[in-house]
Design a protein that fits this description.
Spore Coat Polysaccharide Biosynthesis Protein SpsA, Chain A; 7 strands; elongated; 334 residues; alpha/beta; 2 domains
Length: 334
Protein backbone atom coordinates (compact mmCIF):
# COMPACT_ATOMS: atom_id res chain seq x y z
CA UNK A 1 0.00 0.00 0.00
CA UNK A 2 1.23 3.46 -0.89
CA UNK A 3 0.49 6.74 0.83
CA UNK A 4 -0.16 9.23 -1.94
CA UNK A 5 -0.20 12.96 -1.31
CA UNK A 6 -1.57 15.51 -3.77
CA UNK A 7 -1.18 19.28 -3.56
CA UNK A 8 -0.84 22.25 -5.90
CA UNK A 9 1.33 25.34 -5.94
CA UNK A 10 1.81 28.52 -7.94
CA UNK A 11 4.65 30.97 -7.39
CA UNK A 12 5.50 29.58 -3.97
CA UNK A 13 9.30 29.80 -4.06
CA UNK A 14 9.36 31.62 -0.71
CA UNK A 15 7.60 28.84 1.22
CA UNK A 16 8.30 25.60 -0.67
CA UNK A 17 11.55 24.94 1.21
CA UNK A 18 9.80 25.16 4.58
CA UNK A 19 6.92 23.01 3.37
CA UNK A 20 9.17 20.27 1.96
CA UNK A 21 11.26 20.21 5.13
CA UNK A 22 8.19 19.82 7.32
CA UNK A 23 6.65 17.24 5.00
CA UNK A 24 9.84 15.13 5.04
CA UNK A 25 9.95 15.25 8.85
CA UNK A 26 6.30 14.15 8.99
CA UNK A 27 6.93 11.19 6.69
CA UNK A 28 9.85 10.07 8.82
CA UNK A 29 7.90 10.44 12.05
CA UNK A 30 4.92 8.54 10.62
CA UNK A 31 7.25 5.72 9.50
CA UNK A 32 5.97 5.74 5.94
CA UNK A 33 9.25 6.62 4.21
CA UNK A 34 9.65 4.54 1.07
CA UNK A 35 5.88 4.22 0.72
CA UNK A 36 5.11 7.94 0.41
CA UNK A 37 4.58 9.57 -2.98
CA UNK A 38 4.10 13.35 -3.18
CA UNK A 39 2.46 14.74 -6.32
CA UNK A 40 2.75 18.50 -6.72
CA UNK A 41 0.74 20.21 -9.47
CA UNK A 42 2.62 23.22 -10.80
CA UNK A 43 -0.19 25.64 -11.62
CA UNK A 44 1.85 27.62 -14.18
CA UNK A 45 4.39 29.06 -11.75
CA UNK A 46 6.46 31.97 -13.04
CA UNK A 47 9.14 31.86 -10.33
CA UNK A 48 11.62 29.21 -9.12
CA UNK A 49 8.98 26.87 -7.69
CA UNK A 50 9.63 24.10 -10.23
CA UNK A 51 13.40 24.38 -9.79
CA UNK A 52 13.02 23.97 -6.02
CA UNK A 53 10.83 20.90 -6.50
CA UNK A 54 13.27 19.36 -8.98
CA UNK A 55 16.18 19.90 -6.60
CA UNK A 56 14.25 18.19 -3.79
CA UNK A 57 13.48 15.27 -6.10
CA UNK A 58 17.20 14.61 -6.49
CA UNK A 59 17.80 14.25 -2.74
CA UNK A 60 17.44 11.06 -0.70
CA UNK A 61 14.47 11.77 1.57
CA UNK A 62 12.38 8.60 1.44
CA UNK A 63 9.72 10.55 -0.48
CA UNK A 64 9.16 10.09 -4.20
CA UNK A 65 8.24 13.46 -5.66
CA UNK A 66 6.39 13.78 -8.96
CA UNK A 67 5.70 17.13 -10.61
CA UNK A 68 2.54 17.53 -12.69
CA UNK A 69 2.53 20.53 -15.00
CA UNK A 70 -0.88 22.14 -15.49
CA UNK A 71 -1.49 23.39 -19.06
CA UNK A 72 -2.42 26.85 -17.76
CA UNK A 73 -3.33 28.56 -14.51
CA UNK A 74 -6.34 26.50 -13.40
CA UNK A 75 -6.69 27.85 -9.87
CA UNK A 76 -6.22 25.74 -6.76
CA UNK A 77 -9.40 23.66 -7.21
CA UNK A 78 -8.86 23.04 -10.91
CA UNK A 79 -5.20 22.18 -10.34
CA UNK A 80 -6.07 19.56 -7.72
CA UNK A 81 -8.66 18.00 -10.01
CA UNK A 82 -6.22 18.07 -12.93
CA UNK A 83 -3.62 16.39 -10.77
CA UNK A 84 -6.11 13.73 -9.69
CA UNK A 85 -6.28 12.60 -13.32
CA UNK A 86 -2.50 12.19 -13.52
CA UNK A 87 -1.63 10.28 -10.36
CA UNK A 88 -0.83 6.57 -10.28
CA UNK A 89 -2.80 4.82 -7.54
CA UNK A 90 -4.02 1.34 -6.69
CA UNK A 91 -7.38 0.64 -5.01
CA UNK A 92 -5.75 -0.20 -1.67
CA UNK A 93 -3.72 3.05 -1.53
CA UNK A 94 -4.58 6.04 0.63
CA UNK A 95 -4.71 9.52 -0.91
CA UNK A 96 -4.44 12.73 1.08
CA UNK A 97 -5.09 16.06 -0.63
CA UNK A 98 -4.13 19.32 1.04
CA UNK A 99 -2.86 22.86 0.50
CA UNK A 100 0.90 23.25 0.77
CA UNK A 101 0.85 26.83 2.07
CA UNK A 102 0.99 25.74 5.72
CA UNK A 103 -2.64 26.44 6.62
CA UNK A 104 -3.35 22.70 6.41
CA UNK A 105 -1.22 21.36 9.26
CA UNK A 106 1.12 18.73 7.81
CA UNK A 107 1.95 17.58 11.35
CA UNK A 108 -1.67 16.37 11.68
CA UNK A 109 -1.38 13.92 8.79
CA UNK A 110 -0.27 10.91 10.90
CA UNK A 111 -3.38 11.23 13.09
CA UNK A 112 -5.54 11.51 9.98
CA UNK A 113 -3.95 8.38 8.52
CA UNK A 114 -4.68 6.62 11.82
CA UNK A 115 -8.32 7.73 11.60
CA UNK A 116 -8.45 6.33 8.07
CA UNK A 117 -7.07 3.00 9.27
CA UNK A 118 -9.74 2.88 11.99
CA UNK A 119 -12.44 3.54 9.37
CA UNK A 120 -11.46 1.50 6.31
CA UNK A 121 -13.23 2.36 3.07
CA UNK A 122 -14.42 5.76 4.33
CA UNK A 123 -13.55 9.30 3.37
CA UNK A 124 -12.12 11.49 6.10
CA UNK A 125 -13.60 14.98 5.82
CA UNK A 126 -11.73 17.65 7.77
CA UNK A 127 -13.47 20.80 8.95
CA UNK A 128 -11.66 23.97 9.96
CA UNK A 129 -11.33 24.56 13.68
CA UNK A 130 -9.89 27.77 15.06
CA UNK A 131 -8.57 30.23 12.52
CA UNK A 132 -5.81 32.83 12.84
CA UNK A 133 -7.83 35.45 10.97
CA UNK A 134 -9.21 38.91 11.66
CA UNK A 135 -12.48 39.39 13.52
CA UNK A 136 -14.17 40.62 10.33
CA UNK A 137 -13.13 37.51 8.41
CA UNK A 138 -14.22 35.15 11.21
CA UNK A 139 -17.59 36.90 11.47
CA UNK A 140 -18.13 36.67 7.72
CA UNK A 141 -17.17 32.99 7.76
CA UNK A 142 -19.66 32.24 10.55
CA UNK A 143 -22.39 33.92 8.46
CA UNK A 144 -21.33 31.93 5.41
CA UNK A 145 -21.46 28.64 7.30
CA UNK A 146 -24.98 29.40 8.53
CA UNK A 147 -26.11 30.32 5.00
CA UNK A 148 -24.39 27.26 3.51
CA UNK A 149 -26.03 24.85 5.93
CA UNK A 150 -29.46 26.43 5.43
CA UNK A 151 -29.32 26.47 1.64
CA UNK A 152 -27.60 23.12 1.02
CA UNK A 153 -28.87 21.04 3.97
CA UNK A 154 -25.28 19.91 4.57
CA UNK A 155 -23.94 19.83 8.12
CA UNK A 156 -20.25 19.42 7.25
CA UNK A 157 -18.15 22.12 5.59
CA UNK A 158 -14.95 20.41 4.40
CA UNK A 159 -11.93 21.86 2.63
CA UNK A 160 -9.11 20.51 0.47
CA UNK A 161 -7.62 18.64 3.45
CA UNK A 162 -9.10 15.19 2.76
CA UNK A 163 -8.25 11.51 3.07
CA UNK A 164 -9.63 9.54 0.14
CA UNK A 165 -9.45 5.74 -0.16
CA UNK A 166 -8.12 5.28 -3.69
CA UNK A 167 -10.89 2.88 -4.61
CA UNK A 168 -13.02 6.04 -5.00
CA UNK A 169 -10.59 7.93 -7.24
CA UNK A 170 -12.14 6.71 -10.56
CA UNK A 171 -15.56 8.01 -9.42
CA UNK A 172 -14.16 11.37 -8.34
CA UNK A 173 -12.37 11.80 -11.67
CA UNK A 174 -15.78 11.78 -13.36
CA UNK A 175 -17.34 14.49 -11.18
CA UNK A 176 -18.22 17.47 -13.41
CA UNK A 177 -18.04 20.09 -10.65
CA UNK A 178 -14.87 18.92 -8.89
CA UNK A 179 -12.71 21.40 -10.88
CA UNK A 180 -14.58 24.35 -9.36
CA UNK A 181 -14.90 23.13 -5.76
CA UNK A 182 -12.96 19.96 -5.07
CA UNK A 183 -14.12 19.16 -1.52
CA UNK A 184 -17.80 20.04 -1.93
CA UNK A 185 -18.12 18.00 -5.13
CA UNK A 186 -16.60 14.97 -3.37
CA UNK A 187 -18.91 15.42 -0.37
CA UNK A 188 -21.91 15.66 -2.70
CA UNK A 189 -21.03 12.24 -4.11
CA UNK A 190 -22.40 10.79 -0.88
CA UNK A 191 -19.65 8.30 -0.11
CA UNK A 192 -19.33 6.81 3.38
CA UNK A 193 -17.31 9.22 5.49
CA UNK A 194 -16.18 10.30 8.92
CA UNK A 195 -15.58 13.88 9.99
CA UNK A 196 -12.90 15.41 12.16
CA UNK A 197 -11.83 18.94 13.00
CA UNK A 198 -8.37 20.47 12.73
CA UNK A 199 -7.30 24.03 13.49
CA UNK A 200 -6.12 26.17 10.61
CA UNK A 201 -2.56 27.38 11.02
CA UNK A 202 -1.13 30.66 9.77
CA UNK A 203 0.36 30.48 6.31
CA UNK A 204 4.09 29.91 5.91
CA UNK A 205 5.56 33.38 5.99
CA UNK A 206 2.50 34.72 7.79
CA UNK A 207 0.75 36.26 4.78
CA UNK A 208 -2.19 34.70 2.94
CA UNK A 209 -2.22 34.82 -0.85
CA UNK A 210 -6.02 35.15 -0.86
CA UNK A 211 -8.13 38.26 -0.47
CA UNK A 212 -11.76 38.83 0.39
CA UNK A 213 -12.80 38.72 -3.28
CA UNK A 214 -11.20 35.35 -4.07
CA UNK A 215 -12.56 33.85 -0.84
CA UNK A 216 -16.02 35.24 -1.60
CA UNK A 217 -15.97 33.87 -5.13
CA UNK A 218 -14.84 30.48 -3.83
CA UNK A 219 -17.71 30.42 -1.35
CA UNK A 220 -20.31 31.36 -3.95
CA UNK A 221 -19.12 28.66 -6.32
CA UNK A 222 -19.28 26.17 -3.47
CA UNK A 223 -22.94 27.00 -2.92
CA UNK A 224 -23.75 26.24 -6.55
CA UNK A 225 -22.26 22.75 -6.33
CA UNK A 226 -25.54 21.98 -4.55
CA UNK A 227 -27.55 23.94 -7.12
CA UNK A 228 -30.63 21.72 -6.89
CA UNK A 229 -31.36 22.83 -3.33
CA UNK A 230 -29.78 26.29 -3.48
CA UNK A 231 -31.63 27.56 -6.55
CA UNK A 232 -34.98 26.22 -5.34
CA UNK A 233 -34.62 27.81 -1.89
CA UNK A 234 -33.37 31.12 -3.25
CA UNK A 235 -36.27 31.33 -5.70
CA UNK A 236 -38.80 30.58 -2.93
CA UNK A 237 -37.25 33.23 -0.68
CA UNK A 238 -37.03 35.69 -3.55
CA UNK A 239 -40.72 35.19 -4.36
CA UNK A 240 -41.73 35.49 -0.70
CA UNK A 241 -39.94 38.76 -0.07
CA UNK A 242 -40.95 40.19 -3.45
CA UNK A 243 -44.64 39.44 -2.88
CA UNK A 244 -44.35 40.68 0.70
CA UNK A 245 -42.95 44.01 -0.49
CA UNK A 246 -45.83 44.47 -2.93
CA UNK A 247 -48.41 43.49 -0.31
CA UNK A 248 -47.00 45.90 2.29
CA UNK A 249 -47.01 48.74 -0.25
CA UNK A 250 -50.65 47.95 -0.97
CA UNK A 251 -51.38 48.06 2.76
CA UNK A 252 -49.62 51.41 3.08
CA UNK A 253 -51.72 52.87 0.27
CA UNK A 254 -54.88 51.59 1.92
CA UNK A 255 -54.09 53.44 5.16
CA UNK A 256 -54.77 56.99 3.98
CA UNK A 257 -55.30 58.90 7.19
CA UNK A 258 -52.35 57.75 9.33
CA UNK A 259 -49.05 59.04 8.03
CA UNK A 260 -47.05 57.29 10.77
CA UNK A 261 -48.39 53.85 9.87
CA UNK A 262 -47.90 54.56 6.17
CA UNK A 263 -44.30 55.54 6.73
CA UNK A 264 -43.62 52.41 8.81
CA UNK A 265 -45.20 50.14 6.20
CA UNK A 266 -43.21 51.76 3.41
CA UNK A 267 -39.95 51.19 5.29
CA UNK A 268 -40.94 47.55 5.80
CA UNK A 269 -41.64 47.29 2.06
CA UNK A 270 -38.26 48.82 1.24
CA UNK A 271 -36.54 46.32 3.57
CA UNK A 272 -38.37 43.35 2.00
CA UNK A 273 -37.55 44.60 -1.49
CA UNK A 274 -33.90 45.03 -0.45
CA UNK A 275 -33.74 41.43 0.77
CA UNK A 276 -35.32 40.26 -2.50
CA UNK A 277 -32.76 42.20 -4.54
CA UNK A 278 -29.96 40.78 -2.38
CA UNK A 279 -31.18 37.21 -2.92
CA UNK A 280 -31.41 37.79 -6.66
CA UNK A 281 -27.86 39.19 -6.65
CA UNK A 282 -26.62 36.17 -4.70
CA UNK A 283 -28.27 33.78 -7.14
CA UNK A 284 -26.96 35.65 -10.18
CA UNK A 285 -23.39 36.10 -8.93
CA UNK A 286 -23.08 32.50 -7.73
CA UNK A 287 -24.36 31.17 -11.04
CA UNK A 288 -22.05 33.40 -13.07
CA UNK A 289 -19.03 32.45 -10.93
CA UNK A 290 -19.78 28.75 -11.41
CA UNK A 291 -20.31 29.14 -15.16
CA UNK A 292 -17.09 31.12 -15.58
CA UNK A 293 -14.93 28.64 -13.67
CA UNK A 294 -16.40 25.61 -15.44
CA UNK A 295 -15.89 27.29 -18.82
CA UNK A 296 -12.28 28.23 -18.10
CA UNK A 297 -11.39 24.74 -16.92
CA UNK A 298 -13.15 23.06 -19.84
CA UNK A 299 -11.42 25.26 -22.40
CA UNK A 300 -8.04 24.73 -20.73
CA UNK A 301 -8.46 20.96 -20.69
CA UNK A 302 -9.61 20.90 -24.31
CA UNK A 303 -6.58 22.93 -25.35
CA UNK A 304 -4.29 20.59 -23.41
CA UNK A 305 -5.83 17.52 -25.01
CA UNK A 306 -5.48 19.07 -28.47
CA UNK A 307 -1.84 19.95 -27.77
CA UNK A 308 -0.93 16.46 -26.59
CA UNK A 309 -2.95 14.60 -29.22
CA UNK A 310 -0.59 12.86 -31.68
CA UNK A 311 -0.59 14.29 -35.20
CA UNK A 312 -1.85 11.67 -37.69
CA UNK A 313 0.75 10.63 -40.22
CA UNK A 314 -0.22 11.15 -43.85
CA UNK A 315 -0.34 7.97 -45.87
CA UNK A 316 2.22 8.09 -48.66
CA UNK A 317 -0.40 6.72 -51.01
CA UNK A 318 -2.95 9.36 -50.13
CA UNK A 319 -3.96 11.98 -52.66
CA UNK A 320 -2.38 15.40 -52.44
CA UNK A 321 -4.85 18.26 -51.91
CA UNK A 322 -6.42 19.39 -55.17
CA UNK A 323 -5.30 16.33 -57.17
CA UNK A 324 -8.12 14.39 -58.79
CA UNK A 325 -8.12 10.56 -58.78
CA UNK A 326 -8.02 10.48 -62.60
CA UNK A 327 -4.90 12.64 -62.66
CA UNK A 328 -3.17 10.31 -60.24
CA UNK A 329 -4.12 7.28 -62.27
CA UNK A 330 -2.82 8.91 -65.43
CA UNK A 331 0.52 9.66 -63.83
CA UNK A 332 0.88 6.07 -62.68
CA UNK A 333 0.06 4.78 -66.19
CA UNK A 334 2.66 7.00 -67.79
Amino acid sequence: MKYVFLTACRNEERILGEFLEEFTAMVTKADIAGRAVLYVVDDLSMDRSVAILEKYRETETGVRLEIIHAPTNLGNQGALYYGLGHIDVDPEDQLITFDCDGEDDVAQIPSILELGRDNPGKLVLIERGRRAESLVFRTAFVCYKAMFRFLTRQTVIPNNFLLIPCQFVPKIRRLPLAPVHFAYAIMKLGLASVTTRRDRRPRYGGHSSQNVFTVGSHGLVGLMVFYENVIAKLLVLLSFFGVSAVAVIGGALAVRYNVGIQRTLLWVAVAAAGVAVGLFGLLLSAGMALLFKVTVFTLSRSADEARTRPTPQRDSGALAPGVAPAETAGKKAS
